[in-house]
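hiii so um. not sure if this is the right channel but i have a protein structure encoded as tokens and i wanna go backwards to a sequence. like what aa goes where. can anyone help
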């Protein structure tokens, strides 16, 4: 019997596998592949929350982690041991990355950078005027953006 046919007596294939395919590589075209995100450091989340005192923000989780919004636009979040701030690409991002060792563009998935978000290692961030200035710049930038359009429901 050929390994490619599904004739009489052929064994049923495990879910996600096509005939003639390497059995060690299942297909995922029919189901969503999920990835576990790191849990947010609660102390960092509390630190960011305290840093936002006096700003009219709203809170809701993104990627299962704490995130803060200016209107409908996210401007700050905690992802594992990282604090993310939204800043326009260009000089401001370069300045903050120079000010905080280990800072880089935020990548929720490896190789998938979110170009407006900078990740700062929580251990590098300290309360103070410099930090508050960056939080305010991030908030002001997100507040200046147009509100996101609501996604249309399918069907």
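sure thing!! here u go:
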């Amino acid at each position: 019997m050929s390994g490619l046919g599904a004739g009489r007596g052929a064994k049923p294939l495990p879910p996600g596998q096509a005939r003639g395919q390497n059995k060690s590589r299942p297909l995922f075209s029919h189901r969503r592949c999920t990835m576990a995100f790191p849990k947010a450091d609660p102390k960092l989340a509390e630190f960011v929350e305290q840093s936002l005192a006096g700003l009219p923000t709203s809170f809701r989780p993104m990627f299962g982690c704490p995130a803060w919004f200016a209107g409908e636009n996210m401007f700050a979040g905690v992802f594992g041991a990282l604090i993310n701030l939204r800043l326009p690409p260009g000089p401001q991002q370069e300045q903050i990355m120079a000010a905080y060792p280990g800072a880089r563009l935020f990548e929720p998935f490896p190789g998938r950078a979110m170009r407006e978000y900078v990740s700062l290692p929580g251990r590098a961030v300290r309360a103070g005027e410099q930090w508050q200035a960056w939080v305010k710049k991030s908030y002001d930038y997100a507040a200046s953006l147009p509100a996101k359009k609501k996604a249309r429901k399918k069907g």
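oh and Residues 48 and 77 are 8 Å apart (CA to CA).
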